[in-house]
Input
Amino acid sequence: MGTGESTSGSYDLKVRGWYRVARGAIGILLRVLSRLDVQGREEIPAHGAYILVTNHLHWLDSPVVAVILPHRAYVFAGEKWEKHWLLGPFFHSLGAIFVRRGEVDRQALRQALAVLQGGGVLGMAPEGTRSKTGGLQRGRTGAAYLAYRAGVPILPVTCTGQEKVFWALRRLRRATVRVRIGAPFYPPPVEGKASSAQVQAFTDEIMYRLAAMLPPEYRGVYRDVADQRPDLVQAYSFNSTRS
Output
């Protein structure tokens, strides 16, 4: 299936040469401005399509994910970023799927499905919008729906500390950006097309897994994960020495 750079499918999966240049430059910049602490790289699939899901704290989320992945991920981005003077070119280099907020954008879903069917990697923030409190918001069903439709696994990734990078710089400090990567998992098997209830249940599973990987202060509406899913909290216990 390739490593997320396949060119099959109706959606353009051709990797632009300058993406690698942009990714390298962003990686250097992030390492100058912050300390990157990444755990769980071994969980990243070497081949084939999958959906990377992450919490959404800051516009730096996508650059951080781009730097830690060994291959390209196609991301959703609000249409407001399409013509942004700075981030617009970066999102275009990612092959961003620009989404109209506040409605079901069926064209964006078709593009995302084509990415996955073409062997690509799709990056999504199930919350849909950036958290204003730092805690997880209620997850939307798009990632679960696409995982069922394409038959691909979910790779859970959490990022914390990126929201503090510029605050720390103003104080002549470097914030630590912590990235945690969990084991990929598939949606439960269903007969025929997944029902709305099944898609919602898998959405809850995705969000509880993200919550289990996050420090308690970032869990938001899923703060009860330790009570509801102690198995996940135990499974996703990271430590300072793992890399």
